[in-house]
Structures are given as structure tokens and as C-alpha cells.
Write a structure and sequence with these properties.
mainly alpha; two-stranded antiparallel sheet; 6 helices; globular
Length: about 120
């Protein structure tokens, strides 16, 4: 399917995919509170160091985070404060729609039939 009439949405798709993973989103939310080391993130998320490092690499490739070295430690931080504005807007949208996206047959986590039964 071609969308010749529409602007290229590939960058936006890539951005939302980078945030679609629960671990990456949790990392972004944690970094919104300030810098963190990999060890801090592994404790916070309960994930393996290698997993956290992969997610950090993804977010860095998207230029959403960066790091600074201090001795043998690396401290990660958000480099795009607009990202927090985007997440706040998403929270507002979810609150206003009654979290209807959670019931989406394609992307939601809840089964609409189960929701109606309760």
C-alpha cells in the first residue's frame, strides 16, 4: 500500500516503535527523573544488565538518550525534553479516552468480551 498523498510517516513510526517496548518506556520514564547508570536501571526494572544495555542502545540510536562517562561508570540521561511532553500528552489522551486503546483488538492487552462481561 502506497500513501503518495501523505507525508512520510516513517520517522514517527520509528519513534513510536522505540517507545512501544515496556522496558524502553520504563527506562525513559526513569530517566525523566534524572540520570541513571545501567546498574540503577537493572535494579529499578528487575532486568538483566545485557537486556538493559540493549534497550539503552536502541534509545541512543534514536537519539532520545545520551550518556556521559565518569570514571568507569556511564550515566544515561534524556536529551530530548520534548519526549516528556509527548508522554504527558499521551497520558492525558489515555485519561480522556477511558484507556480505550487498551481494548483495541490489534494492540490492546484486554479482551473486549472479557471487559463487557465484568
Amino acid at each position: 500500500m502506497t500513501m503518495d498523498c501523505c507525508p512520510d510517516v516513517s520517522p514517527a513510526v520509528a519513534l513510536f516503535r522505540s517507545l512501544a517496548d515496556p522496558a524502553r518506556l520504563a527506562i525513559v520514564l526513569r530517566l525523566s527523573q534524572g540520570e541513571a547508570r545501567v546498574v540503577d536501571l537493572t535494579h529499578h526494572l528487575g532486568l538483566a544488565q545485557s537486556t538493559v544495555s540493549k534497550h539503552l542502545a536502541c534509545l541512543r540510536d534514536c537519539r532520545l538518550i545520551d550518556s556521559r562517562a565518569e570514571g568507569r561508570q556511564s550515566y544515561y540521561r534524556l536529551v530530548r525534553p520534548e519526549l516528556i511532553d509527548l508522554l504527558r500528552s499521551a497520558e492525558t489522551l489515555l485519561a480522556e479516552t477511558g484507556n480505550a486503546v487498551a481494548l483495541c483488538r490489534n494492540y490492546g492487552t484486554a479482551d473486549p468480551a472479557e471487559e463487557k462481561a465484568s
